[in-house]
Amino acid sequence: GENVEQHPSTLSVQEGDSAVIKCTYSDSASNYFPWYKQELGKGPQLIIDIRSNVGEKKDQRIAVTLNKTAKHFSLHITETQPEDSAVYFCAASQGNTGNQFYFGTGTSLTVIP
Amino acid sequence: NAGVMQNPRHLVRRRGQEARLRCSPMKGHSHVYWYRQLPEEGLKFMVYLQKENIIDESGMPKERFSAEFPKEGPSILRIQQVVRGDSAAYFCASSPPPGGSEQYFGPGTRLTVT
Q1: Residues of chain B contacting residue A46, judged by C-beta atoms under 8 Å apart
Q2: Cβ atoms of A80 and B19 closer than 8 Å
Q3: Which stretches of chain B drop beneath a pLDDT of 50?
Q4: pLDDT tens, B11-39?
Q5: Quick check: B31 and A97 CB within 8 A?
Q6: What is the structure's pLDDT at A33?
Q7: Per residue in A11-20, pLDDT tens?
Q8: CB-based contact (8 Å) between A50 and chain B?
Q9: Which residues contact A9 (CB under 8 A, 6 or more apart)?
Q10: Nearest CA in chain A to B100
Q11: Cβ distance of B105 and A36 shorter than 8 Å
Q12: Bridge partners of A12?
């Protein structure tokens, strides 16, 4: 089965700096890679996703890059703000309805004002 | 458009009791997934259901756990004879009709077994 690894497990940055979270996956059949933000006591919220036919996708301060050859993908948050503080999870799936998501173990991001 | 709804948000059960967790998918979604999250860990897939059908239950323990998604009403995850190791957050997600890869999560039910 698929195995998703995520690093780092914790990350602290100063407000305004950038944050980068990296994930690797093992199954070359995976072709859909969402990122979720989870605030304390809440469910995961989809913030951005990328499919394997695209190398990079950007949405305002958030961007995701994908390297299919190396089987890794990364989340980039620029100009971080205190409200970005949360746990971020990457996931991989085969991209069809019904395909389960394989999640990384999460990165706890703290943005220091 | 209301999001995925789960209830109860918090559930306390003594060892040996039954736990019933409910999930109502987003409007227009007929695909439901259940995941379990242990403290300090990522989410682990349990089961995928469509209306009246279990499609994939490969992540669900063989004993004590069951799930259903009836024609009418919410999806139910049922845990019989709960043990302390069942304490976790249980999340439900739903996805749009076939062709949609995205899964949208509810707020979760936090089960505590005493």
Answers
A1: 102-105
A2: no
A3: none
A4: 999 999 999 999 999 998 889 999 999 88
A5: yes
A6: 95
A7: 999 999 999 9
A8: no
A9: A105, A106, A107, A108
A10: A97
A11: yes
A12: A110
